[in-house]
## 1
Amino acid sequence: MSRKQSNPTTTQITTDISLDTLQSMYVTMVKIRMFEENVAEFLHPNPEIICPVHLYIGEEAVATGVCSALRKDDCVFSTHRSHGHYIAKNDTEVYRENRY
C-alpha cells in the first residue's frame, strides 16, 4: 500500500489488491455479519440458552483480512469470537446450514 499526497488536505491510498479480491472480501464480511445477526436473533427470544455468545459483529474485517492472506492449506486457530474466522477461511457450510 502506498500513499500519494495530491495536496496538504487530501490523501489518496492505493493498493495492489484487485477489484475481484476486494469484492470477494466484502462478500465474506457480509456473510459473517449475516451469520452473527442470525445467531443473535436466535438467542434473544430463547431463555433456555444461558451461556453467553460473544458475537463477531463489528469485527468482520479482521478475520476477512487475515484469512484472505492465507493459503487453502493453512490452518486458523481462534479461542474467542471464532465464528468469523471459520466463515472467512472459506468454510461456509456453517453459514449455509445456520441460515434460520
## 2
Amino acid sequence: MNLILKQERQVELDRERFQRIKDGLEKEASKDQQENDAALFIQRRIKGILARKRIDEIRAEEMVFLGMSRKPKLGAIAQMKKTMDERKQIQKSYLTDYLDAKEDVK
C-alpha cells in the first residue's frame, strides 16, 4: 500500500515538473546532470542495501551472543573436513601409543 502511494506521489511530482518545464519556469536537466543524478541514485541504493546487509549480520551475531539463537551450522563439506581432521589426529595418537607400548614390551 505504501509503495503504491509513493509511486502515485512520484507520478504527480513528475507531472508538475514537466508542466513547469513546459511553461518555461524550470530548465530541463542536461545530459550530464541526468547522468550524475542517476549515478547518485544508484550509489544511494547500493549503500542502503549494504548497510541493511551489515545490520542483519550484526543482529545475527548479537542474537548468538545473547543465546537467543544458535550458531550457524557449517556446510556439509566443511563439516566433513573437520571430522576427517579430528579422526586423523585420534589415529595418530593411537599409533604413537601403540608404538610406545610395543617398545615397552621389547
